[in-house]
Amino acid sequence: GPGQEREPRLEPLLQVLAGLSKRGVRLCFQPGNRDFMLERLPGVSLERFDPRIRSWFEHRFGAPTEVQRLAWGPIADGRHVLITDPTGSGKTLTAFLWALQQLATGAWEEGTTRVLYVSPLKALNADIERNLAEPLAGIADAFRAAGGELPRIRVAMRSGDTPPAERQRIVRQRPEILITTPESLNLLVNSKAGPA
Description:
Strand 1 and strand 2 form a beta hairpin. The strands form two sheets. This protein has a three-stranded parallel beta sheet, sandwiched between helices. The protein is mostly helical. The protein contains seven helices and five strands.
């Protein structure tokens, strides 16, 4: 449990279990029995992604995390998904990556906002750099390496500090991905003039 020291003899077993989890397998013990079995975790891995995106992901991260494997199937099916997991588990990239897939492959029409990402201001810059800017750059490289080009995916950030000229530009040229704070979202939703 939390705060308890690990038994040193168990460390090799824990490393094996962590490795299995990264590969989509878990160890299941039968109640009241000492037997165990290996079970493949439900969900999808990367097979529903474009090969260029899959290649970038595998090169950058290796295997998907458990939350990614479990969430990508329902997300790809267009279902509403609420993801909760500890910090650093890949939740934000889980949501962004399928959206990037749809925009990169032309499955979603460009020229209108397709993704609305709401984040507290203090986390905004780190979230965007790690979970959007880096993946976009890496995916663009993967498309070029395969002899193609990534379509233009416009990203705009709207917060209380956004200058009026930039707010108007967002209205005139709608970004495919709009990032905002809860406070700015409230203003956007309740504004009579629309998302300025």
